[in-house]
Amino acid sequence: MSEFGIEQQEHQAVKNSPAKEIKQPATKVKLPYPVLSVDLGTTETKACLNANPEYVEFIPAYVKELSVNQVQGVIQPFASDVYSNLTVEYRGKGYALGNRAEDEQGSLGLTESKVAHAVVKVLGIVTLFELTGDVALVIGLPYLSLEQFESEREQLIEALEFQTKVWNFRKETKEISVQEVFVIPEGFCSLYWAQQSDAKAPPFEKTSVAIIDIGHRTTDMLSVNRFNLAVGSTLSIPFAMSEFYRRVGERIGFGNHESSCLIQAVTALEGDRFFRPKGRRKGIDLDEVLPSLRSTFAEEVCDRVIEWLPERTRIVCVVGGGGKYFWQELKELFLEAGLKPYLIEPCRKATALGQWLYGSNQLIKQHR
User: Of 136, 175, 162, 178, which Cα lies nearest the Cα of 35?
Assistant: First the structure.
C-alpha cells in the first residue's frame, strides 16, 4: 500500500463575478503550516485552506502566456481587484490567469496534461490567498493509467516539493517554501469529505464503493475498498460534460461547444436556459432541446459505469459538476440496476474539501 492508502494492484486496462473578496478561513486544526488543496478542474480550479465549503474558491482555468511588459502594464483602475486581474511573473515569463486570461483569449489547455500549467496556477492561488512561508500542497490529477498517473505525479513533486518558489505579482516579490506535496487521483478524496460532513453517508470504511466523478473532460470511475483505492479497477474515460456540450452545440447548429456562454446557459436553472449564438437575431430556449439530450447522455454514462463496475460493488457515489447535473437521471438508472446511488455534496467542492482533510491528516501524522 502506498502513502496514499492505495492498493497497488496489477494495472488493467463559467465565469465568476469580476470582483470579489477572497475569504481567509480560520481553522481549529493545529497544523505545522497551512495545507492548500488544489483541484485542477478543466474549466475551473477549485482551492481551499480548510474544510469549510464557504471558503472554497473557484478560479477560471484559463492561462495565457504574456510578455513581462504586458503583465506589468495592467490598467491601474483595476489594479486593486486581484481576482479578475490575476497575473504572475515566473522565471522570466509572464502569465495571465483566470478572468484576465479569458479576456486575453487564453486557453483551457483541453489537449494538454493538467500538469502543463499546474505550477503557475498554484502560484496564482497562493497569491490570491496571500500565503507566505511554509506550505503543504494537495493536488488532484486524473487517473488515465497507472503509468500516466505515476509519471505526472513525479513531475509535480519534482517541480514543487522541498523548493522555495519566488515570483512577482505587480512588481512585488512573493515567496513560499513548499514542504510537502501530496498528489491524489481526482475524486478519491471526496469520500473523506462525505464521511465527515454527512452522518447518513455509507460506511465507506467497511465496504466497497464506486466513485463516479463526472467532470468537464473525463469521467473518473474509481473502485474503493474500505478507503483503499483499487488501482487495477480504476479508470478515467474521455466521456464527460465537454461531450455533452458538443452534442448540445450540434443540435442547435453552434460550432463552439467550449463557449463559456453556452456552458452557462446549459447549466442554468430551468427557465433561464436561453442562449443566443453570436450573429443570430433569434436566441434559443435550451429547455426545448435539453431533456432528450440529457436522458440519452445519462443512459450512456450509466451503461459505461455498469460495464466497468466491479461485481462486489453496489454503492455508487456520484460527484463532480456533471454528477450533480445528471443526478436525477442517473439516480433512477442506478436504482433500476439494483445499485445504491449516493450523491456527495456539494458536488463541485467535495474533492477539494476532501483533499484538504487528507493532507491535513497526513501532516498531523508526520509531525506527531
Answer: 136
Please tell me the distance from the alpha carbon of residue 140 to that of residue 319, in angstroms, as a whole number.
14
pLDDT in tens, 217-244: 999 999 999 999 988 888 889 999 999 9
Residue 10 has pLDDT above 70, yes or no: no
Quickly tell me which residue has 494537495 as its cell.
138
Q: Can you give the pTM of this predicted structure? A: 0.88
CA distance 312 to 301: 20
Copy the grid coordinates of residue 108: 483551457
What residues contact 2, with CB distance under 8 A and at least 6 apart? 8
Task: Please state, in angstroms and rounded to a whole number, the distance separating the CA atoms of residues 160 and 18.
Answer: 30
Say if residues 147 and 11 touch (Cβ distance below 8 Å).
yes
Q: How many whole angstroms separate alpha carbon 240 and alpha carbon 217?
A: 6
Half-sphere exposure of 43 (CA within 13 A, CB side): 23
CA–CA separation, 264 and 16 (whole Å): 11
**Do the beta carbons of residue 77 and residue 70 sit within 8 Å?**
no
Handedness of CA 334, 145, 263, 14 (dihedral sign): positive
What's the whole-number mean pLDDT along residues 19-45? 77
* The pairing of beta strand 172-185 with beta strand 163-169: antiparallel
Question: How far apart (Å, rounded) are the C-alpha atoms in residues 263 and 241?
Answer: 9
Helix, strand or coil, per DSSP, at residue 39: strand
Q: Give the 3-state secondary structure of residue 9.
A: coil
Structural domains of the chain sorted by starting position, each given as residue range(s) with its CATH number in brackets: 6-189+349-366 (3.30.420.40), 199-343 (3.30.420.40)
Judge whether residue 74 has pLDDT over 80: no
Q: From the CB of residue 183, how many other CB atoms can be counted at a distance below 10 Å?
A: 23
Torsion angle of the four alpha carbons 138, 143, 147, 151, in this order, in degrees rounded to the nearest 10: -30
